[in-house]
Design goal:
single chain; D-Maltodextrin-Binding Protein, domain 2; Fructose-1,6-Bisphosphatase, Chain A, domain 1; five-stranded mixed sheet; 7 helices; alpha+beta
Length: 284
C-alpha cells in the first residue's frame, strides 16, 4: 500500500541529492550550456544528470510510476503515481552563475497532486508540502520544519510582484497590449521583480516573501510542486488554458498559464492580464 508520508520522503531525498549534483556544476568552467529550443531556452549536462538521478531513485522505490520530466520526456507506468520533475528550474540563471534556481518535484496520485518539493541548494532551503501542510526545512531536515503561511501585502501599492511577463514568447501575441500591461504593472505595484525561476517564485509566495506572480505558456513540471505549496500554505493558485478557461483546482498544474497570490491578494490588474493573455487559443 502506498504511504503518502513515505512518498514525500522519497521526493525530498531525490530533490536534495539532485541539488547536490547540480551544485557541483554551479559556477564551474566545465559546465556547458546548450540551446534547447531557442536562445531563451538552455540546457546543461547537469540538468540531464540531475533528472537521471531523480528518475533512478523514484523507480527504485516505485517502479510502476509514470514520470514527466523536462529533459527526458514522459515514461508511462502502470501505477497510481506520476512524478513531475524539473531538475534545474532556472537553467539560464544556473548557467550564468546566478543563484536563483532550484530542483522541483511534484507527485500526483491518480491525477491529484499530493506532494510538492522545491529545493534551493544554494540557500539550502527545502520547501515541501503534502496533506500535513506546507513547510520549510534545511536540506538535511535537521530540526523542526517551519510551517509556511502565504501571507503578505494584499494591495498593489505595497506589494512585490514576480513578473515573468512579457517574455519573447508573449510578444508573439498582442505585443502592443502586452507592453501596455507591463507598463501598467510597473506603475501600479510597489516593486516588480523578474526572478528567472518559476518554482522559486511560487515557493516564495507560499512563504510570504513575495506577494503575487503571473506567467504564461508554462509546463506541468514548472508548477506542479509550487502549486501545491501555495495552496497548502493558504495562498491562491489558479491556472487557465489557451481558451481562457480556468482549470479546476485538482488538475490546475496542467494549465498553460498561471496566477498566484498570497491569501487575500487584491490584484485585479493581474487577473485582467491573465484573462486577456490566456485567450491565445481563440481567434485574435
Amino acid at each position: 500500500m502506498l504511504q503518502p508520508h513515505e512518498i514525500t520522503a522519497v521526493a525530498i531525498r531525490a530533490a536534495f541529492e539532485a541539488g547536490k549534483i547540480a551544485l557541483e556544476g554551479f559556477r564551474s568552467a566545465e559546465t556547458v550550456a546548450e540551446i534547447k529550443t531557442d536562445k531563451h531556452d538552455l540546457v546543461t549536462q547537469y540538468d540531464r544528470a540531475c533528472e537521471q538521478h531523480i528518475r533512478q531513485l523514484v523507480l527504485a522505490h516505485y517502479p510502476d510510476s509514470s514520470i514527466v520530466g523536462e529533459e527526458d520526456g514522459s515514461r508511462i507506468g502502470t501505477g497510481e503515481l506520476t512524478w513531475y520533475i524539473d531538475p534545474i528550474d532556472g537553467t539560464s540563471n544556473y548557467a550564468r552563475g546566478i543563484a536563483m534556481w532550484a530542483v522541483s518535484i511534484g507527485v500526483a496520485r491518480r491525477g491529484e497532486m499530493m506532494t510538492g518539493v522545491i529545493y534551493d541548494p544554494v540557500s539550502d532551503h527545502m520547501f515541501w508540502a503534502d496533506a500535513r501542510g506546507a513547510f520549510l526545512s534545511n536540506g538535511a531536515l535537521d530540526g523542526e520544519p517551519l510551517p509556511l503561511h502565504s501571507r503578505g501585502y494584499t494591495q498593489p501599492e505595497q506589494a512585490t510582484v514576480a513578473l515573468n511577463f512579457p517574455l519573447a514568447r508573449d510578444l508573439v501575441h498582442r505585443p502592443q497590449l502586452a507592453l501596455e500591461q507591463f507598463a501598467a504593472v510597473t506603475q501600479t505595484f510597489a516593486q516588480v521583480r523578474s526572478l528567472g525561476s518559476t518554482c522559486i517564485a511560487l515557493a516564495w509566495i507560499a512563504a510570504g516573501w513575495l506577494d503575487t506572480t503571473i506567467s504564461f505558456e508554462t509546463n506541468s513540471w514548472d508548477i506542479a510542486a509550487g502549486s501545491l505549496l501555495i495552496k497548502r500554505a493558504g495562498g491562491v493558485f489558479e491556472t487557465y488554458d489557451h481558451d481562457a478557461r480556468q482549470l479546476p483546482q485538482g488538475r490546475d498544474y496542467l494549465g498553460d498559464h498561471y496566477f498566484a497570490t498570497v491569501a487575500g491578494g487584491q490584484f485585479e490588474l493581474l487577473r485582467e492580464i491573465m484573462r486577456t493573455q490566456s485567450a491565445r487559443g481563440l481567434a485574435e
